[in-house]
Amino acid sequence: MKKIYLKRGKEESLQRFHPWVFSGAISYFDQEPEEGEVVEVYSNNKEFIAIGHYQIGSIMVRVLSFQQEPINQAFYEKRLTTAFNVRYCIGVVGNSNNNTYRMVHGEGDNLPGLIIDIYGKTAVMQAHSVGMHEDRMIIADALKKVMGDAIENIFYKSETTLPYKAELGQENGFLLGGSTEDIAIENGLKFHVDWLKGQKTGFFVDQRENRSLLEHYANGRNVLNMFCYTGGFSFYAMRGGAKLVHSVDSSQKAIDLTNANVALNFPDDPRHKAFAEDAFKYLDNMSTPYDLIILDPPAFAKHKDALRNALKGYSRLNQKALEKMQPGGILFTFSCSQVVTKDNFRTAVFTAAAQAKRSVRILHQLHQPADHPINIFHPEGEYLKGLVLYVE
Known about the structure:
This protein is of the alpha/beta class and 392 residues long. The chain folds into three domains: 3-65, Archaeosine Trna-guanine Transglycosylase, Chain: A, domain 4 (Roll), CATH 2.30.130.10; 73-187, RNA methyltransferase domain (HRMD) like (Transcription Regulator spoIIAA), CATH 3.30.750; 204-391, Rossmann fold, CATH 3.40.50.150. The chain is built from ten helices and 20 strands. The chain has a seven-stranded mixed beta sheet, sandwiched between helices. A six-stranded mixed beta sheet has the order 2-6-5-4-1-3. Strands 7-8-9-10-11 form a five-stranded mixed beta sheet. Helix 8 runs parallel beside helix 9 and helix 9 crosses helix 10 (342-356).
């Protein structure tokens, strides 16, 4: 196995079990590794530290283990068994009211570069590293062995998540099975999952508990769901007794999927309307008096260089919503940008409140659910931030 040696002092973060080795920490290789290859990491004093997947880029090694052990199917079975036990512990496995959850959450499950979401009998696997892509078949075999009859299909969806410079020629497709059944259940509500062409793995599983919370605030309110994507917040609001629900997304395909999901749960319900329109334009021109607004935009910042502009974008978006909000209204507002900290986001939203000249109170501080665990040694994994505000 090829070895990577670190510069003096650069082993400290790894000794604290942080799972990334950055390119600037590397001194030399004993042999040049291929992308996706498993390599061993050593200190400048030639002491073993970790083993992981090598990849060209800022993060050059994603650590799989801090012990010298083979990375094979038995390794993945062990990690997947632990991940499954966590989901069983928190109650998302074996729940007849809910067959949708995240089975593997990258670094949070000590499998950096790997995401697996479960939709009924189908697992959707997504690789964010070349190493996980190269290991996809043994991971699929390990997943089937761990989950048994609980899954019948494994769909691999990594066309847009792998580095294009690696030139892997990856295409999405089934590694196991091939079912076209695309309806899953979350907290008793049904939805179509577009794992073929949809964003992420086909649905935003990470908002499950926040959607449930919104349901409790929706009764009798006029609800605006901005950046609605597949309409998750919309049909929860309808079950919660909303007076009307308007869903807005710039994508007509998202609007079509939202309408289909609402029809699955509330066929021919006149309370819901959907609009394919730019969010800022809709907020500028809207005439309906809303007293519950959801702002769940895509990530405004993918990297630190974009942070400043992202925070301005969050402030501008929230200011527009707060200016239009009816007195006594509720705002659910989110950021899914990993580089935006909780303090960054709160400052951006409070700036918006000041500029909108509205008095607000924090009712809830929101985050990702327990099936998206955060590795305590990898705080960067805490990516989803949210606030529920009461607006005077």
